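Thread amino acids onto this structure.
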């Protein structure tokens, strides 16, 4: 299992050898945005110039080999809605008039699907045998409310089989930086039915803990029927590597861009 760094025309993105179709987890490198959005910002809602974000989408799409101007995009609300989409849902990235959801699933070919992150866990799913894909934004709220179960259910509705689904869990906030309080600890424990060894660790202060949200999501995927051998997990922390990835926890309310996770059936 391995994530690989790819570079083309200055654009840098990550891929997993578990996903056998075009896909990518973007980084900050290779775009035209300035200031806190430097440089491959893909978001349109935090103050960057639209022409810059559009150019960044074009550059990333050209590098990966997909068309971002006829794609389906999430409108994320930290919920559990996973939409089944088709060619009729294809829009340009600047169009923010889209249904709220934190995940997308499709069996249509040549329709890229996107979700966006800046510390939350991005998950790409692919059943290569039955040709179904999904892209999921799994922040802690969406995770503990079981968005991955919803994603797998929507993929199954399109013909996927759990034991055929491969997963790539991308760059996100790591255990080292994801400090949580007692209430979040309780929610994660509920989500994993108490199986928190190796997921929740003692914090530096009383009533505080550290959590491995990527491991939590991996365990949930296994419970949902995925083969552990088909799951790849990035070891990059977006907070520690804030020069490579955007991190909401590192930046706070200042200028910040967004990276994406995208996948398409060929």
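Threaded sequence (266 positions):
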């Amino acid at each position: 299992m391995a994530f690989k760094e790819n570079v083309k025309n200055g654009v840098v993105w990550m891929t997993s050898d578990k996903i056998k179709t075009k896909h990518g987890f973007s980084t900050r490198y290779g775009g035209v945005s300035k200031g806190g959005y430097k440089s491959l910002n893909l978001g349109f809602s935090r103050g960057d110039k639209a022409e810059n974000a559009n150019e960044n989408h074009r550059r990333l799409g050209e590098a990966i080999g997909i068309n971002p101007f006829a794609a389906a995009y999430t409108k994320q609300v930290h919920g559990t809605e996973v939409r089944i989409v088709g060619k009729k849902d294809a829009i340009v990235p600047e169009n923010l008039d889209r249904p709220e959801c934190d995940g997308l699933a499709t069996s249509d070919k040549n329709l890229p699907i996107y979700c966006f992150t800046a510390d939350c866990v991005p998950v790409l799913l692919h059943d290569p045998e039955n040709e179904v894909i999904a892209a999921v934004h799994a922040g802690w709220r969406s995770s503990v409310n079981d968005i991955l179960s919803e994603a797998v259910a929507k993929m199954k509705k399109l013909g996927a089989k759990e034991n055929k689904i491969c997963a790539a869990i991308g760059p996100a906030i790591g255990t080292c930086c994801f400090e949580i309080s007692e209430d979040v600890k309780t929610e994660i424990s509920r989500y994993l039915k108490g199986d928190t060894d190796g997921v929740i660790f003692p914090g530096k202060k009383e009533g505080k803990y550290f959590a491995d949200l990527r491991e939590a999501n991996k365990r949930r995927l296994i419970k949902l029927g995925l083969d552990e051998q088909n799951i790849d997990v990035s070891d990059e922390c977006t907070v520690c590597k804030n020069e490579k990835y955007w991190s909401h926890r590192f930046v706070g309310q200042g200028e910040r861009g967004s990276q994406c996770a995208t996948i398409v059936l060929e």
